Amino acid sequence: MPHPVFDEVIHEPHRLRICAFLVPTAGRDFGEVREAMELSDSALSKHLKALSARGYTRLERAARGGRQVTTVILTPAGRDALCGHVAELQRMARIVGADRRVTSARR
């Protein structure tokens, strides 16, 4: 179980979705990520730059079929950070849920 840690970089909604989208894969084509996130090239690049600055993602460029392909990869550090962030959100949700049950019981 990852240590619950709130991560402000991952918490940004697009970045959270990007990381979650990358989890089940070894990497995804930049265009596939762009389409799934419904972002422009420049907006996706901006988010990936923020994630890469923390070591959470990396880009690999390779020639495939006569063209350059960029693959977006979630690093082990990124996976750990995402899992820790999700664990912290779950911990916070349990606190809120427990408080709601107590508040409802008082009424």
From TrEMBL:
Gene3D superfamilies: Winged helix-like DNA-binding domain superfamily/Winged helix DNA-binding domain. Residues 15-92 form the Winged helix DNA-binding domain. InterPro entries: WH-like_DNA-bd_sf (IPR036388), WH_DNA-bd_dom (IPR027395), WH_DNA-bd_sf (IPR036390). SUPFAM superfamilies: Winged helix' DNA-binding domain. Pfam families: HTH_34. It comes from the Bacteria. This is Transcriptional regulator. It comes from Phycicoccus endophyticus.
